[in-house]
Amino acid sequence: MSKVKSIITALAFMLGVFSPLAHAQLEVNIATGVFEPTPIAIPDFEARGVDPEIAFQISQIVRDDLESTGLFVLTPPSAFIQKDLNIEVAPRFADWKIIQSDALVIGSVERVVRDGTELFRGSLRMWDVYGEELMRFEDESGALVSGRRFLTKPEDLRRIAHKISDAIYSRLTGETGYFDTRIVYISETGPKLERNKRLAIMDSDGANVQYLTSGRYTVLTPRFSPEAQQITYMSYEGGTPRVYLYDLQRGRQEVLGDFQSMTFAPRFSSDGREVLLTQAVSGNSDIHIMDLRTRESRQLTTHPAIDTSPSMSPDGREVVFNSDRGGSPQLYIMNTDGSPRMCPSGGRDIACRITFGSGRYSTPVWSPRGDLIAFTKQTGGRFHIGVIGTDGAGERLLTESYLDEGPDWSPNGRVITFFRESRPGAAPGLWSVDLTGRSLRRLATPTDASDPAWSPLLP
Asked: Which residues have a Cβ under 8 Å from the Cβ of 301 and sit 6 or more positions away?
């Protein structure tokens, strides 16, 4: 049996799931959850009728994507023995075994013309070195194929690389990839007490930054719609904090609703047809939900405490939120329709508390998988990003810093992005951490940055 097929995937252990296609090479110690990154070789892709620099850039983006996960270690090109690679021909496996690469990716980039339109096509095949066999992929229809091909316009050339990365990641882990996505965030410039905060968007690896608002008015807490075509956020335009919608295709923004007082902390419902938000009236805040088609709103919480930061479960049946109704900020879950529910601690209530640890909890976000909730926790003078089960069990803190805040999930539910200030007065920056807590990295942005949110996979 090949090495690829004999080792259980780290993701299956850490996330408690199993996929029949997850023949990954990740070595796992079942007792401790410790695993070694998979050695993988990705030589420069072959340039077929295109500038070799283009093929090199595609190859490098793929390498950077996979290395950023912490799950893979790239075999350095200086170790390569075989140079005469061809995507249609099996490699000399002995040459790759001797440098201990578990998997070998061979790719090409070529220019094609269809109906008079210039396109670029990226192709890949992946070989199980120790099993000496071609690794098959699942295509969009679910069929097993010997490789993958992706077409794109010249202006979207980087997306070929991210799609290839997603295909490799998915094949080796059994998990959906998350590289062909975007991150929206708040770009911050200027003096500490007079910050210019505007809406910005970038590729998942920090490339192609665009600024969506001028910075004349402070904006906060942007969130993507499930189709990644709209963003909801809070803006101080007009003097009163209000929730807005931004249409990415049209480049237009509009106020959401005609609320007479401040609204904030918006987030789309799981189907994208509604927006959850917080309205503050006379010093009290409650959670509302607005239908985007009819623009009718419904109040979800009616409590004298501060209720805020709602996030809906993937099935749309429940909402997690932050409330100080128990004396300190904690996390609560309620049914979306407002009906009573059984609480983990026993008894029935409209809203059930799920956190009971010491410290203050805030900014909960439901995982796309539906099994975990990410949150910010402040305790002992430090901030943490953590996760907890929807029943309040299994709390784990993944990070610790002077200020870590504002988590949001990658679309596959394996990585969390957030923003950090490492010390008093330090500039905020974007970071990500995986569910093991071991793969922590900073995301490059051209300015200071905060409040990140991840898009779903792009169409």
From this structure: 286, 287, 307, 321, 323, 334, 351
**What's the token pair of residue 307?**
């209720």
**Residue 32 clears pLDDT 50, i.e. is over it:** no
Q: What is the pLDDT of residue 34?
A: 55
Assign 3-class secondary structure to the chain: CCHHHHCCCHHHHHHCCCCCCCCCCCEEECCCCEEECEEEECCCCEEECCCHHHHHHHHHHHHHHHHHCCCEEECCHHHCCCCCCCCCCCCCHHHHHCCCCCEEEEEEEEEEEECCEEEEEEEEEEEECCCCEEECEECCCCCEECCEEEEECHHHHHHHHHHHHHHHHHHHHCCCCCCCCEEEEEEEECCCCCCEEEEEEEECCCCCCEECCCCCCCEEEEEECCCCCEEEEEECCCCCCEEEEEECCCCEEEECCCCCCCEEEEEECCCCCEEEEEEEECCEEEEEEEECCCCCEEECCCCCCCEEEEEECCCCCEEEEEECCCCCCEEEEEECCCCCEECCCCCEECEEECCCCCCEEEEEEECCCCCEEEEEEEECCEEEEEEEECCCCCCEECCCECEEEEEEECCCCCEEEEEEECCCCCCCEEEEEECCCCCEEEECCCCEEEEEEECCCCC
Residue 117: what residue type? T
User: Is the model's pLDDT at 44 over the cut of 90?
Assistant: yes
Note the pLDDT tens digit of each residue in 79-93. Answer: 999 999 999 999 999
β partners of residue 319? 312, 334
The whole-angstrom separation of Cα 319 and Cα 326 is: 18
| Average pLDDT of span 352-358 | 94
Distance CA 6, CA 103 (A): 14
Distance CA 57, CA 73 (A): 19
Partnered with residue 125 across adjacent β-strands are 106
- 64: closest CA among 162, 163, 142, 176? 162
Cα separation of 39 and 166, whole Å? 17
Residue from 263, 223, 231 nearest 250 by CA: 231
With contact defined as beta carbons under 8 Å apart, do 109 and 47 qualify? yes
